[in-house]
Structures
1.
Amino acid sequence: MSSNAKHLHSIDAGHYKNTAGCETEVMPIPDIVKISMSQNIGAPCKPLVKKGDEVKVGQVIGDTDAFVSVPVHASVSGTVTGIETQRNAMGGMDTLVVIEPDKKQELSEEIKVPEITDMDSFVAAVRASGLVGLGGASFPTHIKFNPKNKDEVDTFIINGAECEPFITSDHRTMLEDTQNVIDGALEIMKYLETSQGYIAIEENKPDAIALFDKMIAEQGITNLKTFKLQARYPKGAERVLIYEVTGKECPAGVLPADLGVIVSNVTSVAFFGQYLKDGIPLIKKRMTVDGDAVKTPKNIIAPIGTLIHDVIGFCGGYKTAPKKILMGGPMMGRAIFSDQMPIVKNNNAILAFSEEQAYIPEETACINCGRCHQACPFNLLPTGLAEAYENHDAQMLSDLQVMQCMECGSCSFVCPARRPLAFMNKLGKGIVKEAGIK
Amino acid sequence: MDKNYYNNLTVSSSPHLVTTLDTQKTMLMVLIALVPSFIMSIVVFGARSIALTAVCAISAVFFEWAYNKLMKKPDTVKDLSACVTGVILAMNLPSSFPFWMAIIGTFVSIVIVKCMFGGLGRNIANPAIVGRIVLLLSFTTQMTTWPVTRMDNTDATTGATALGILSEVAKGKQDVSTLPDNLSLFLGTCGGSMGEVSAIAILIGGAFLIWKKIISPIIPVSFIATVFVFSLIYYAIVGGDYNAFNMAIFHVCAGGVMFGAFFCATDYVTSPIMSKGKLIFGIGCGVVTMVIRIWCSYPEGVSFAILFMNMLTPLIDSKVIRNYYCKGGAKKDEK
């Protein structure tokens, strides 16, 4: 199945998929891991271990009773050497459980293959696995897989678009964990009772599309198909993806489930497929390490909690002094201030840029060219929003639909005057929320 | 393993990538698109068009540099927009135009229309258009003295433009047959402003800008189509010696319609941002041009039409934007 006739606006942000051919290497257990208690949107977990405790792989070390939450598991076996607080990439404070690994990687007795018999045990298993949206949003998956209007949900979309430049970890997942993706998808579709499933992949990954087509045909699966997306940014954004695959518009504030659709990242699905077999929770993550400051860019699997410094050390270390390190891709990834931060569940890339690649161009005056408007997938008017933001005009921001912005950064990317339009939209949303305009 | 930690990294908001196309490159594309018209002006009018273009471009850049220096503002010359304004103004002048008058024109364009309104992006009118209008009103004789083309074999040194002849025809002083034929207008062998003479050269430049996605085709197409349809209908009603279809082609190729449509009306700063606004703007330019050409005392109305629509741009923008966004949610499928 191929794309709709109609497409939302998109941009050519370049691909830079330098590591697409790099088979994933498993990183050895580092000398220290720091596991964050806030790895999902919603409530942070409370540490269940204290200094001096021995922990084993897969043991629950953090949990909470809050609704929007998932447990956190130990990614290594070893000794808890402390509970620290550290400023995170968002600017807030995180609680970290510091573990000194004994490198034996003994599995916890808590690990068992999940027994899924009905919807309740399915949702419980998803939560127990510690799964969050691995595409970047880190929304607890068990909540997404338990929609209120389950009867209306008929489409399950697996997001294998990977439209962010540089990142190839989803691509590698699709090539290396193909069977897990299919198994996970079939299990999820069974309990969501969806009649159709799509694996949406950008057309610049023909090998992945061909592999899925072949395996689906071989196994005689009828309710799962691949879907070819344009290789443009931001086709992998959930709201864009839904439109491209189903033709249904999904404005902000509407849940995909309200449109009868549930979208899940391909890596989340692959993890779940694996979890069904061995019951090992989410304790390691495949990610792309790239950028011009990294000596040997590669795809790696690292234990959650590994320090970014150690991850880059595994990739040959720094070629030149890094000026900017990103968690995630260059379009929506977050710049972090220190390489001593740990890997979290939703990391799909670590990009280290040299001074040259991290250069922030000088902002000049808007020339009203309208490129931002033509680039916006939702046809917003970023230059108008920027003006309203500069005037702190909450009503105008709201009238111009700032809340529809998903901060994909296409406007900032195309702006010939180098204005930080997406940033201003982000701040503009804050103004609207503060003013309490509905 | 390297044990040096980096705790002092740059933190900025995403995205961390930008396209290579910046304002300077955009302006460079416009300059490249002006090359065919520039070459035609040299072919048609000789070396003086090189000199006049150079005077305009250099003085425009100088005025912007000097203004910023004097006002202690950051230097913006390197964005090339002043150079574009200078060249576009030159293309709107007769090749024999005195240099010192041209410098007054660039002064008005750059200092009064652009810099004093806050520089690039803040001007409310197209600088080159206003510069031309000021020159036309101040130095009417020089601005309407058209040197004959080098293809002209008569002894005359100056001649009338196609639209000049048309206004005589309309007054009944000359016969319709004295109008230059459309092919010579299209190729550019009939007198006029330097950049306006050759429709084909302008089309090449305009096609380049559209291909490179520097300009949207909406404004030029709606502008030219409006002029075409308007004259078709008008001359069909007037009848007489006129052939309506020929006259429609004539109005499109003669004077500044082509040049104005591709190079002046499409100025980002002074034209609407939304597609619908661009359509209204283009149609408005076409209608005002034809009203001036047919019923007013000036033979040519493109500059006034563009200036008039420049003044309406904020109104068009605000109406179109309100209409688009303030009803329900953001629409998705409109191209």
2.
Amino acid sequence: MRAMIIDDSRAMRSILRRIVTGLDFETTEAEHGQAALDQMNAGVVPDVCLVDWNMPVMDGYTFITQVRANPEWRDVTLMMVTTESEQRQIVRALAAGAHEYVIKPFTADAIEEKLELLGLLGADREVPA
Amino acid sequence: MTDPSAFASVSALVRRETSMVYDEGKEYLVEARLTPLANAKGLGLEEYVARLAFDAEERRKVIDALTINETSWFRDHTPYQAFTEAMLPALLEERSTTRRLRVWSAACSSGQEAYSIAMLLDQHLPGGWEYEIVCTDISTQMLERVRAGRYSQVEVNRGLPATSLVRYFTRVGREWEIADRLRERITVKHLNLAAPFPMLGTFDVIWLRNVLIYFDATTKADILRRMLPMLSPDGYLLLGSSETTLDLPADLAASWQRDQIGRVPAYRRASAMTLSRTGA
């Protein structure tokens, strides 16, 4: 599985990279939505994007609408990871095509559980007793 | 906790009052949970532990703090999937005359399990059906939290689908409050699993997940024996993924029949036929 981490904060990208690398994802990074789109247009299409909302050049919301507008990228899972915690903003992101939403601050478990919800961690992590 | 005798005395206290076992190796947990309580009294950890011998109020706080409450929404995912996809359709058929379901969240902690179940029932129960979820816990502090139905930003990140967050919660300041229509279905009661159960009626599904591991073998068997009549004859008992009835005394083990439901084992009351087949 490949994850693209899209956040203008290098520290946040590094935190997320450590978490998802630990879950066996390969990662690529972009510091704003446009840089992420450029990579995808060049053929680097991840299984999941972890997307910040507030970024320079192109924000996460616009990025999501752009990805959803391209049918070739319909299998890309989009997860917002952002300090934006207004209820209407969450609704807006989901309506635009985000599959999940994590509010900063978060724990590593939160990222793992959301990826599991999205079916991105492989089947049966729980082994029946 | 640096002083082993302080840990031993806390461990003995918890065991005495709840039958929960805190083995060596859990010192870090005891220290992490008790340090804020000691600080609140302006005491060092060891002084605080010494005070517990004669301070009942602080003892109550320690029990509350040490009652495990580490939880997320839809924890482990598969039991909820099995509940929705297999148990619920069967129960809808079996209860089609009463149109009423009763669920017990038997160590409800801060309520994520109970409210996760409530969300599923809200989505999957046909119109005209009623449900009640009884939440019990030994920690009065946790029961207050369930009653309040308010969760922090960090808590709502844990395993709760974003669609459910916006559908069932309202943001209030820095917290998120569960919808009244779910909270109204929850009944909260103080209960020590290790002591005789009060009258609670019978349940269609009992969730007893990730709590038996904290009890010794005798108490565990005793709990599962007293649980039997609490479950309706066609009901389901769900345990945690590392918990089982296999290590119970033979007669009791035979009273619980393990069925694979979806991807999880569920435990059911063995019928007379099953009992004779297994020779019990």
3.
Amino acid sequence: MRRFVFVARGVAWRSIHNTFANPAIILPSIIFPLFFLAAFAGGLSSISGVPNFDYKPGYTAFQYGFVLLQSSAFGGVFTGFAVARDFDSGFARRLLLSAPQRSGIIAGYAVGALVRWLVTGSVVTIAALLAGMSLEGNGVELIGLLGLGVLVNNVAALWACGVAMFLRTEQAGALIQMPVFIVLFLAPVFVPLHLLTGWIHAVARYNPATAALEAARGFIAGAPVKVALAFAVLAGAIALMSLFARRGLASAERAG
Amino acid sequence: MQATAPEATGVAASEAALPGAAARELPALAEPSLLEQVGAVARRSVVRTFRQRALLIFPLIFPLLLFAINGSALTAARKIPGFPDVSYRDFALAIPFIQGALFVAVSAGTDLARDIESGFFNRLALTPLRGSALLAGQLGGAVVVACVQSLVYLGVGLATGVGIASGFLGALVLLVLSIVIAFGFAGLGALLALRFGTGEAVQGFFPLLFVTIFLSSSNLPRNLIKTDWFKEVATYNPVSYLIEGVRSLIITGWDGEALALGFGFALALCVITLSFAGAAMKNRLVRT
């Protein structure tokens, strides 16, 4: 356990340092969600006038729920890019040779992803509040919202680490981000689930991201919904993605 | 192209490479015309583009994916009073054409940047190939990709039940407009490549270019955008007029104003980006 923590701490520190020392790495992960927030909350605010759109805190808060979880997921995705870059540069191979407990490597990258998101998420929250968002949840509900973000970030980071370790090239970037992007956008992004029609409604209904998104919006509105389902789904996804990332690591170990 | 480049250099380079009498014995060859020079560079650009299938597939699939998702997810927008009396899918079909053009910009710029980074551009610059031919030819692959993309987007739109209000002739005009737009964006990609000289820099601009679509009238007509600052940004954003030009042919029919603005901004984009790219090309050739 001590060796695991030792490796995780070292990798996390390096990941955090690289992220914040290089503006070209941190800026896109901050700017992207801000633009999404501006484009969706600003450009589509008329949607809140559609009959049966019943989200009380308003459209900015409605979109904030999505953008917060999106920034959380992309915090994990961007960390996957860093893992792929480490393999391309040869650093990861040296790391594999020197780490006394290799599963600590995954944990370290995951911690790096979390710290990255805590900064991005704070910026997005400040921007949304400045834009007039009304946060109606109480302290406990806002902690619940934060918890959802942490879990989503962890799922995405484990997925991204797994893919990056399986493929070990920066060209894995598209494969890392596309599924995350698709899963997120197949949730009720622009309107509540009950206003979706056709195939997108059927897909969104069974999309695990929908539970997390609805729970997040419930916390923001101070009217929690699907909380147990959302946390259960995310806990299951973390268990699954941990296995996937561990297998990715094993694949990288075999490749030498 | 590596085999073609020496042919394109004409006799001057050959003479420069040969000493005295040997050079004088060479027959005088006519310098290839500008069109032949463009053709030679363009052929290489097209072949290279088709060899990199990932460059073709991703720009095709990603906009279609967003079209499929947004076309359904934003159906509720039709209930906003004043929304055009068409399905949201009809309204949204214009967006893939512009997104595809942005991908063309990035792939054209990245290809040119790769030539700069690998030194191939420097070797070409040593030949009598004209800078304008080099620039126009390099964008040949981009134009071919734009043609393929536009046909696919139109085909997918028609297959999913989108009607073209301006009819068959309108569909042809739509293809022409989308290709002009793509050419303009390809010029921007070339400008970035010539200015910065690395593919990483070109790709780094992609998010910024992509944001111009989000900050436009892509998702709702401008008169239905409720947030004032966003409406202002969308009004001053030229991408809004490119989208509205394409969209008018799909949902309105023949709208002279929208088409004039669409073609006007598209041509202005071509002229501006290609002029600056031409100047950047000269600078880079001088540096070479």
